[in-house]
Amino acid sequence: MKASNSLWNARIAGAIEPGLASEIDAFENEIALKKQGKIEDKIFAETRLRRGAYGQRYDNGQRHDGIESRKLAYPQPGLTKGPNTLWDAPGMQRIKIPFGGMNAAQLEVMAELAEEYSDGIAHVTTRQDFQLHYVHIEDAPSLMRRLAAVGITTREACGNTVRNVTACPLAGVCRGQAFDVTPYARAFASFMLGHPDAQDFGRKFKAAFSGCADEPCSLVRIHDLGCVAQTRVVDGKTERGFSVYVGGGLGTVPYQAKLFDEFLPEAELLPLGQAMARVFARLGEKKNRNTARMKFLVVKLGLEEFKRLVLEERARLPFDPRWTAYLAEIEKEQETPSRPPGLLQITAPEPADQREWRGSNVYPQRQAGYATVTVALPLGDITADQLRALADMARKYVNETVRTTVEQNIVLRWVSESDLPALYADLQRAGLNQAGAGTILDPTSCPGTDTCKLGISSSRGLAGELRMRLAESAISRDDATRGLRIKVSGCFNSCGQHHVADIGFYGVSRNKGGFAAPHFQVLLGGQWNENGGAYGLAIGAVPSKRVPETVERITSRYREGRQAGETFQGFIRRIGKAACKQMLEDLMTLPTHAEDASFYTDWHDVREYTLGDLGIGECAGEVVSPLEFQLTASEREAFEAQLALEKGDVAKASKLAYEAMLRGATALLTWRQVFFVNSPDGVVETFRKEFYDTQLFFDPFAGGKFAQYFFRAHELVAEERTADSATRLIEEAQLFIEACHSCTIREAARLQAAKA
């Protein structure tokens, strides 16, 4: 049962950081405006996506947990509306978890939200986020407030923004790290969140931090910006810094990141990120989203020219104290255990399942007597009750040092080794004791056709099937194949990271005799280690129902034909692409529907296969110009002024109305690309010169009246207003904003006519 919005709003009042609270209020008002038809679809899409609110598909209705398939009867309890419009159809809410760090209270709130707003399941993503499915858009503000009360935001979880900043979940406890990258990832995420220089991208911007170059814990080489910890000794003093990589990315065609700087001093991390964001915003593609990522800009300009432009931008930036303020606090931020270190003591024969779990899910930390324990989540799913149980364990065994991972699992750090048997027993009671984390038994999958509008084949259904079959196979017990990674994507966009898997799959479809059948393209030999060091080879598509046999054949061939000490990547390179394809050619054939109709259904779905409501994906919103976005924000502020006036807060209403006009004028100046001092006086002075004196802003019927409203509001900004004068000011603000829209339309028409 959901708690009432008013109850929760009252309960958490004052607990949310004021700036974040006002943003959530703004989003709630934008939802109201959208329902009134006062915001265009494409602008509202970018608005909600920047707050992590997605649409999702409904033609499948399946969830797979790797053990059994749970069919979601629609509508769900709590999901009482039919999936007809944006307001009726629940969607997906993405929740940012910078560097994967969480505490017990946050796990408990996630459990409550999964139970009250979703289907009782929370999902960990390959970017260390959480996702809740089947969330109504009208519930999103309440959900966001409850997250904000425990220090979690959904802001910029999607859209053309800086996405969740990922980092190695072992940072600080890793035996091979140069240093703990956690404080740097946290500082980067905080600095870039809502930064003015990161609001005008053509597509998303992803950043990752790793403490070493060899392991795959954060995959820095598949990111727009990847930072690997490095140290050097200068004049006898150890200095910290980063090897910086740029322009990486998967997607349809993967790009390997390029080395931008071998050693970037730690103090330069944030200013470099800001400079890079400015260059990307200014020169990145805006019209064609297919070529709008950073990787395309780096290729277009060339690495050296891109680097020159970024360093030139860096030199122009005015100093920001936030660049280095956090560095003085790094040593004070170190995690601490809650229990003393201990040695593992097993007095009786250890149960086989516990021994297997300890072999795959327990990592001895650099700190003697402590271990990091991976809680394996089949396909990234965890129930509300399991989240609560995990929160209890985080308090009982560790100092609430919990992190999500890019392999869709959760880790508990700083577990005393003497507590491992007791912890295993608690995990077992919660159904969280599955072994095989980070092995072939732990495949990664994107949502696929379950909920994604771009899904072609059931990636979750396939991954769940593989997990069940491999658990009973010798493949998972053979040292040669146990450590292989399998990654599955429902389409070619690589959300399941299939390009960097040992064995990767992505969904496609084929047609035979008028019947469509789900297939998966097979990729072999990607390099998971070295932070995603190499990409696999695509060798052909096999019917979805033959993928388990495909995995069996590939792994058997490797076990039988590998040379001493030869890695899977080395084996695939040695035998070559032709031999790989020949190995699977007979499995690529599709029987006719009459011969075997089962090939024309997807995993764990009895219905005939169809692409259903495959549509436009929402990984990023339609590119909305800063002008459109800012004018929409002006309208929202004018609307908020009305709400304040209704509550009798005349001062706030007057302030909001004036700020709405100021924002509209600023948007026009930015659109015209004229220099102005970004202060109220500077905006007014430049607006008068560029738009009023030139009569560019003059309305055909009202002349310069609407501009005069703005000038007068500025002159009287410090004057105390009455309810009547505040009402007039709000009306004038609305007219001024409409005039801003009209001005841009007239100017666009004039420019178009001039071109003709």
Overview of the molecule:
- This protein is globular.
- Strands 1-4-7-6-15 form a 5-stranded antiparallel β-sheet.
- By secondary structure, the protein is α+β, with helices and mostly antiparallel strands.
- It is 39% helix and 15% strand.
- The protein folds into 5 domains: 144 residues, no CATH class; 160 residues, Sulfite Reductase Hemoprotein, domain 1; 78 residues, Alpha-Beta Plaits (2-Layer Sandwich), CATH 3.30.70.3340; 157 residues, Sulfite Reductase Hemoprotein, domain 1; 130 residues, Nucleotidyltransferases  domain 2 (Four Helix Bundle (Hemerythrin (Met), subunit A), Up-down Bundle).
- The protein contains 23 helices and 22 strands.
| Number of beta-strand segments | 22
Determine the N-to-C terminus distance: 61 Å
Give the DSSP E fraction (strand runs of 2 or more residues): 15-25%
Tally of individual helices: 23
Q: How many domains make up the coordinates?
A: 5
Q: Write the CATH homologous superfamily of the largest domain.
A: Sulfite Reductase Hemoprotein, domain 1
Report helical residue fraction: 25-40%
Q: Assign the CATH architecture of the largest domain.
A: 2-Layer Sandwich
Gyration radius from CA atoms, angstroms: 28 Å
Shape: globular
- Average per-residue pLDDT, rounded, comes to 86
CATH class of the largest domain: Alpha Beta
Biggest beta sheet summary: 5 strands, antiparallel
State the CATH topology of the largest domain: Sulfite Reductase Hemoprotein, domain 1
Class of secondary structure makeup: alpha+beta
